[in-house]
Write a structure and sequence with these properties.
Helices cover 60% and strands 0% of the residues. It has 187 residues and is an all-alpha fold. It folds into three domains: 71 residues, no CATH class; 44 residues; 46 residues, no CATH class. The longest helix has 43 residues. The radius of gyration is 34 Å and the shape is flat. It starts with 9 loop residues before the first helix and ends in a 19-residue tail after the last helix.
Length: 187
Amino acid sequence: MANKTVKATKAQVESRITELMGLLVRGASYSDILRYCSEMGAAATNPDAKDHAKQSTFYGVELTSRQIDTYIQRARTAFSKLSESDRKEAIGLAHARLELLFQSTMRIQDFKAALAVEKSRIELLGLNAPTKIAPTNPAGDKPYAELTDEERTSRVMAIVNQARARGAGSATPDGDDDDSDSDDLEA
């Protein structure tokens, strides 16, 4: 007669997922988790099994790597759900604190502090319009201006001519002898 495996209850599954979440939080790698589950599964047949092994939800349970993969995936999904709800909760809590702080500053007529609190609240909720950044030249002192096709062609040709002159070891197009390799190309 074939060995019949017993299906885990929902409570056991949730306990195992929680246990794996603890391992993941402590930095366990995939191979660490496989080894841990294997050791806990084999611990039931070991009379010298330590008490902490007997506390494991994996104690005496032999799982396939595919089953462990499923548990790991469910643990990671649980982390995602926690982070979503934690983020919403954290934003809600921060918003409530800012509201209370705003009311307090208005009550004592500290308008400068109230304005700072309101700016923080607006930033928290993302109510600001996107900030536009005007492109400038590399020095930052002049607005960026598009080059015309003629200007662009002229600059490219000047660079090409300088490169050719350097390659031939002759004078550059501006008439200077090109004895130095450290000259920068001008854009």
